[in-house]
Amino acid sequence: MTTIDHTHDPAARSCVPGADGHSDFPIQNLPLGVFSPGDGVARAGVAVGDHILDLAAARDAGLLTGEAARAVAAAEGGTLNGLLALGAGPRRALRAQLFALLSAEGPDRDRVPTLLHEASSCSLHLPARIGDYTDFFVGIHHATNTGRQFRPDQPLLPNYKHVPVGYHGRASSIRPSGVPVRRPHGQAKPPHLDAPVFGPSRRLDYELELGVWIGPGNQQGSPVPVEQAAGQVAGFCLLNDWSARDIQGWEYQPLGPFLAKSFATTISPWIVTPEALAPFRIPQPARPEGDPAPLPYLLDHADQAGGALDLDLEIRLSTAASRAAGLPPHRVARSNARHMYWTVAQMIAHHTSGGCNLCPGDLLGTGTLSGPDLESCGSLLETSQGGKVPIRLESGEERRFLEDGDEVTLVARGLREGFAPIGFGACRALVLPAS
Amino acid sequence: MTTIDHTHDPAARSCVPGADGHSDFPIQNLPLGVFSPGDGVARAGVAVGDHILDLAAARDAGLLTGEAARAVAAAEGGTLNGLLALGAGPRRALRAQLFALLSAEGPDRDRVPTLLHEASSCSLHLPARIGDYTDFFVGIHHATNTGRQFRPDQPLLPNYKHVPVGYHGRASSIRPSGVPVRRPHGQAKPPHLDAPVFGPSRRLDYELELGVWIGPGNQQGSPVPVEQAAGQVAGFCLLNDWSARDIQGWEYQPLGPFLAKSFATTISPWIVTPEALAPFRIPQPARPEGDPAPLPYLLDHADQAGGALDLDLEIRLSTAASRAAGLPPHRVARSNARHMYWTVAQMIAHHTSGGCNLCPGDLLGTGTLSGPDLESCGSLLETSQGGKVPIRLESGEERRFLEDGDEVTLVARGLREGFAPIGFGACRALVLPAS
C-alpha cells in the first residue's frame, strides 16, 4: 500500500497559478497524461492547475534527474506504456521531484513557467496504447438493480459473491474525454415484435465506472498473487461504458455484451496515481452476514484493510435545450467508489489466476458503481427502472434514456478532512445522432 | 471476390526444393509470416516448401519492385500490421512477383537460394501485433451440440439465426503454434458441491476454429457494408480456442466466457491469403427451410454466392504414452470450414454495424467449426457429450477431456480437383501440467 508523505501535505502550495483551491489538479495530485500543445506533437505531461507541464522539457532542462528522468525517458513517443511498465519506484521518484519543482517555495520555481502549456490550448490524448480492456461487474448495487429487472426473486446470480465477474471489452473504440459518441445502429427485438429490427439504438445509456491502468504486468502462466496485486496498479481514471440496452438485451445470450458496448467507451485522460489517492484508501466494506468468505486466492488482509477507495462520483447531464437556456448540467446521480463488492487487487488476482497475462497500459473497468438508492444509480437503466419511470431535469425535460445532443460528464473527487481535495478531470462526451 | 489467375495454375512448379507435391506451401500458396533465422531478428517472410524466403532481402536484391516493394517496406519492424493495412492491391502485387521469382522457370531462379532459410532452423512468431481479438460462434453444429447439453428442447437461442453472435476475446495471450499451454487454475463449482473450489481445471478442451486477419480496418462510426467486407480480410489461420469447461460453466453468467478462455489461444503462424484460397470459395450453404432471411445489412448476393470456404479441417491428438509407443497422432475429428451459419463478410459487417472500428492486425475467430456428426465435432465437450462418453485412442487410452502431456494439432487443407492443394501449416501445442 502507498503511504502518506510530504507530497500529501494539505498546506503545500504550487508556484503554478490555479493549482490551489478548487482545482482538480493541486500539487498533491500530479496526474500523468499525453497532450499536444496547439501545433505540437503528442508528449507526456503532468496536470497542475489549469496548466500542463511538459515532462521531457523539464528533464531536458535538468530539472528531473535519476529515477524520475528514467521515468520520463520511458514515456517518450506519445504513450505512457513504458513509464507504466516501470512500476512504482520511478513513478514515485517522479512524483517527489515534480512536487519539489512545482512547489511555491521550490528553488527552481522561476524556471517552471517556460515548461508549462495552458491546458485550454492543448489536446489531450489517450495516455497509453491500450492492448486489452477488461470490464468487471463489481458494483453490487448495479448488479442487484439490473438483475432484479430480469429475476425479481434472485437478482444476483449464484456466482456473484464468489467470482469477480468480468468480461473482455473492446480496446480500439476507447476515446478520451471530449470525443463525441455517435448513437449506434444495431439489431434489437422489441417485445411487441416477432422478429428483430435493425436501426438506431433507442435505449442509449451511460455507465459510471472507474478505470484502472495496469503497470508492469505479468508473464503468461504466472498469476499475480492478491498480496502483490496492488503493485500492478499504475493509476485510475473515470470510464463511461456507453451501453445500448436494446442491442444488449437481444445479443448478449450466451456470450455476453458485444456491440451494445463496443461502439465507444470514454475515459478521462489523466492517470491519477495510487500515490495521489493514498489519502482516500479505506477498508473494504464488511460483507453482509451470511455472505461467503472470498476464496484464499482472493483474500489478503492488507487489501481488506485498505484496498477500497472513498471517492465521490457524480454524473452530470446537459441537453441541447438546457445548454440553450444557459442552465448548468443537471446532476443525475451521486455515488461513491466504495460500492465495490471486490477490490481492485481482487480483480487483478482473479484476472491472472488462470495464467492470463496483463500488459503495461491494459485497462480494467470496475463495472457500474451505483450506490444503494435511486439517486445514486450509475446508469439510466437503473434510474429509470428499465425505462419505465422517466427522470425530470431542471430544464423541465424528461429522460428515460439518452437523446441526441445530450452531453454526459462523469466527475470524481477525493475529499477527506486534513487532505487537499483531488479531482480526476472530466470524462465527458456529447451524443451525436445516428449517421 | 478474388479471381483465379495464373498463380493458381496447378502445373506450376517452384525452383525451391520441397515446394511441390504434398507440401502445405506450394508455389500456389505463398503465405506471409514473421520469422527469425537461428540467430537473427524477426522479419517478414513467405513460406515455400520447407523454406522461408526473406522478403526484405529479396527486395534489397532488387527482385521485388513497385507495389510489391511497397508491401515489403510496410512489413518492416517484425510485424505485418503495416502490410495488412495496405489492403489487396499491394498484397496481390507481392503474390504475383513472388510467384514469378519462385517459379521453376523464373529468370532470377539462380538468385533465390541466397534469400532462403530452412524453416526447421527458424522460429515463427505471431505475424502481427493483435490489437483486438473477437471470437464468433458461427459454427451452427457446435452451437447446437453445446446448447443441447443445457437446453435439450431449444438448443439454439432465439437470436442465433438473426445475429452473428460473438464476443471480445483476450488478445495478449494468443501465441503461435509450438508454444506450450499450461493447464489453468480457476474457480469451478462441481454439481455435487455446495460452494466453488479453486484448483487446476479438470475439463480442459480444445476448439477447432479458423482465424481471420483484418486488413485496412475502418474508422470508428463508419460501418463496413457487407458488400465491402471481403476487402477487409487480409488472410486466414487456424485457431485453437483452448477452453476450461469447468471454469466456463461457473463464471460465464451473465457476461460470457472470461478466464475459461483467456489463459491461452494458439494460432498457426502463417497468414494464408484470400488469393491463395480463391479456388476453395463455395456458395454459402442454403439456409434450412423456415430459417429467417438475414437482415439487409447482412445480405449481399455476391457474398452468398461465393463467401463460404471449402477447407478440410482435422484435429489430431497425441499423448505422452502414444508418443512413447511411436504411434502417430490420433485423428479425433474431421470437419470442414463450410459449416458456418454466417460468412466472414457477415461477421465483419455485423461487427462494425454499430460503428466499432476494426484495425489492421485485429483477429477474428469463427467459433468452433463442428460438422453434423460425432466424428466431426470440433471440441471434446461435444465428442464426449459433456464428458459422459470417453473417446478411445489408438494407444488404448481414453479421453473425456485433455490430460497433461497431450498435444493437440489442428490442420486445414484446401483440396479441389484441378487445383494444387493448399495447407495452413500446423497449429499445435502441448498441454503442460498446472504449476
From TrEMBL, chains A, B:
Its pathway? Amino-acid degradation; L-phenylalanine degradation; acetoacetate and fumarate from L-phenylalanine: step 6/6
Judging by the UniProt lineage, the source's domain of life is Bacteria
Q: Where does substrate bind?
A: F137, R151, Q248, Y252, T368
Which GO BP terms, alphabetically? Answer: homogentisate catabolic process; L-phenylalanine catabolic process; L-tyrosine catabolic process
- What cofactor does this chain's UniProt record say it requires? Mg(2+); Ca(2+)
Q: Which UniProt keywords apply?
A: Calcium, Hydrolase, Magnesium, Metal-binding, Phenylalanine catabolism, Tyrosine catabolism
Stretches assigned to the Fumarylacetoacetase N-terminal domain: 28-127
Q: Which positions in this protein are listed as binding Ca(2+)?
A: D135, E207, E209, D241
Q: Where is this region: Disordered?
A: 173-196
- The catalytic site is made up of H142
Q: Where do the annotations place Mg(2+) binding? A: D241, K261, T265
What is the name of the protein in this document?
fumarylacetoacetase
Q: Give the organism, scientific name.
A: Methylobacterium platani
